[in-house]
Fold this protein.
Amino acid sequence: MIPLKDLNRSQTVPVVNVALIVLNGLVFIYQLSLGRQLGKLFYAFGVVPSYFFNGHYWEYLGLAGGLLPLFSSMFLHGGWLHFLGNMLYLWVFGDNVEDRLGHFRYLIFYLFCGLAAAFLHILTNPSSRLPTVGASGAIAGVLGAYLVFFPRARVLTLVPILFFFQLMELPALIFLGFWFVIQFFSGALSLASQQVGGTAWWAHIGGFAAGAIYVWRLKRKGPKRVVYHD
């Protein structure tokens, strides 16, 4: 299913969300200029799980250098489909979450979800020597927050039916709930089959859970502490 837009108008200009999309775009353009050197960039600034359990890695880079890939990996992408798919989801769902959280809090929230996603990916793939890149984990956190904030919002969606696409308005609960179920079962299957490489399913699961729990805890404190406008 491909989301085209949500029918939930935000009240503020999503400056942080737009800035994140622009920054990802600029980094992706830089990636395209590297040619065969791109792999070196991924290993230097992507998350390689096995590195984090290697003492020499921390001795060589130090704490700051060792932790840097947890942040830098959020702005790297493995190809056009990876980049465009992530940015589409961020564009459709991010503005309303930023509207609810406020600009600065949304930025912190986005990075927090990206870190949670990376940590769960590392824990579920401790021996992997493959670099993991992409904003998917952080964006999954945005999806989790959107589901908690706006479960009844309508999402204009292209739904594949046999060989055709049908345009439908789906409740966020259905669209995002289905998305999460796919991630969860795919992640469970990857663990059972000891799959190496491919999609970082558990990063998606970790980011989504972090975003949903974060926002759920805010909502429990009452509406006056949920809505922030800078």
